[in-house]
């Protein structure tokens, strides 16, 4: 089933008429996407990736994943941003947020190199003691500071445990096809490599080797993920300007024009928490530039209704929400009957928790709509590989269209470099002497 956009719960805010005002901009965005002619067109390889991927590389990924499953208890993935968020989202969505603690035949998977926390790295290393370990470092350049530090530490640990021949069986680099520090290191040491596509930015790369190797290690069927993305691609482009990803992009811009500057992506399934984190990077880095953009936030309901629900219901009316909703019952667990009925729950005894969740979903939507928070609902069928691939493609296309409508380049992230320059200067990196001097003067003034 294709991903569906339900726009029943818009309320009195940005309506269909207001969204229609952006149609000329959507036509222009669609032309840029289809013809690959817009700003950032060097990074639009994701558009055709589901039907034009490297079959030989995917076959190697499956073979490598099977080998890792056979000889490793733990698989450590090193990367930051798009180098890990998509894979983490897939594993939680397809398996469980508790993947590492449930009984299974596949390795535990840990993600490091996404912060500067030494405690986190040491904790993962301690978990590796007495167990067989494999490592996948994901970085196009190999010089991204957080992941480069983590890999240097992890490589030292692996070298203390394994011979050079054994390391070649256990360390895998996903990096640039031809150049870069990580590519050079991998070639010098004989580590098997996979490609970060030159024409796909990190946040759009989950359907490439960047995401597919860790996903395959967890036992998921990556062929079905790619098939889901391909089917969604076909359905969206066949529907033309009226497709649901474009509708989502139109509504987002209409909401923004109406003063709704914050979007909350929420789900009633905790397994989608990591998906919302991937989505925040996707839209935040793609739209947040030139003083423009919607601030992407996320929540898991009903959990966060007990922390953020008050603000969403009665706070500043700058919000709209998008609910990612599962339409098929994923669990038949029912509320049991209790003779004493101390908790007064017998009125729902026999109800499935799926149905209870649905009532919470509907009750919240109407409460928020009546409180001035309009809602969109993105519907997928079930938590499987096909749906995951379709969701990824839906949001990628919607994001590109929304950014073009907004008037920004969806595929660059110039603002990310600002903190890095200051950090490098403070750390004393060669070449940043003047910046260090100026920054220290500010700090000490």
- What structural class should be given to the helix and strand makeup? alpha/beta
Overall mean pLDDT stands at: 94
Strand content: 5-15%
Enumerate how many helices there are, as a single number: 18
Strand order of the largest sheet: 1-10-9-7-8
* Approximate shape: globular
Fraction in helix:
40-55%
Which H/E pattern describes the elements? Answer: EHHHHEHEHEHHEHEHHHEHEHEHEHHH
Instruction: Please give the largest β-sheet.
Output: 5 strands, mixed
**Rounded Rg:** 23 Å
- Note the gap between the termini: 61 Å
What is the β-strand count?
A: 10
Contiguous low-pLDDT stretches (5 residues minimum) are: none
Task: Name some characteristics of this structure.
five-stranded parallel beta sheet; alpha/beta; five-stranded mixed beta sheet; 445 residues
């Amino acid at each position: 089933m294709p991903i569906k956009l339900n726009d029943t719960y818009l309320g009195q805010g940005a309506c269909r008429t207001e969204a229609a005002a952006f149609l000329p901009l959507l036509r222009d965005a669609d032309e840029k996407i289809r013809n690959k002619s817009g700003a950032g067109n060097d990074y639009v390889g994701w558009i055709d990736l589901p039907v034009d991927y490297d079959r030989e590389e995917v076959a190697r990924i499956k073979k490598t994943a099977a080998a890792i499953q056979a000889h490793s208890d733990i698989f450590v993935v090193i990367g930051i941003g798009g180098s890990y968020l998509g894979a983490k989202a897939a594993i939680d969505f397809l398996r469980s947020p508790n993947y590492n603690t449930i009984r299974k035949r596949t390795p535990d998977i840990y993600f490091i190199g996404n912060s500067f926390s030494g405690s986190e790295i040491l904790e993962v290393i301690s978990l590796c003691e007495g167990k067989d370990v494999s490592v996948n470092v994901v970085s196009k350049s190999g010089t991204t500071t957080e992941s480069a530090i983590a890999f240097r530490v992890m490589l030292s640990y692996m070298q203390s445990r394994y011979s050079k021949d054994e390391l070649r069986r256990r360390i895998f680099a996903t990096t640039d096809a031809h150049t870069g520090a990580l590519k050079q290191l991998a070639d010098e040491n004989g580590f098997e490599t996979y490609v970060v596509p030159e024409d796909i930015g990190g946040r759009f790369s989950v359907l490439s080797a960047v995401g597919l190797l860790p996903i395959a290690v967890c036992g998921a069927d990556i062929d079905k993920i790619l098939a889901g993305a391909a089917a969604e691609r076909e359905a969206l482009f066949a529907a033309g300007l009226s497709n649901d990803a474009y509708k989502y992009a139109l509504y987002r811009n209409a909401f923004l024009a109406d003063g709704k500057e914050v979007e909350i992506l929420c789900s009633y399934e905790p397994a989608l928490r990591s998906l919302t984190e991937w989505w925040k990077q996707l839209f935040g880095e793609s739209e947040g530039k030139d003083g423009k953009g919607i601030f992407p936030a996320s929540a898991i309901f009903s959990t966060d209704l007990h922390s953020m629900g008050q603000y969403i219901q009665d706070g500043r009316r700058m919000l709209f929400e998008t609910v990612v909703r599962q339409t098929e019952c994923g669990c038949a667990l029912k509320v049991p009957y209790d003779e004493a009925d101390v908790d007064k729950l017998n009125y729902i005894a026999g109800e499935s928790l799926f149905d209870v969740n649905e009532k919470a979903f509907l009750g919240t939507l109407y409460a928020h709509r009546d409180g001035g928070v309009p809602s969109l609902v993105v519907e997928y069928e079930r938590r499987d590989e096909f749906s995951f691939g379709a969701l990824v493609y839906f949001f990628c296309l919607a994001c590109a269209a929304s950014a073009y409508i907004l008037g920004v380049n969806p595929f660059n992230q110039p603002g990310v470099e600002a903190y890095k320059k200051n950090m490098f200067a403070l750390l004393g990196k060669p070449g940043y002497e003047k910046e260090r001097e100026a920054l220290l003067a500010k700090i000490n003034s």
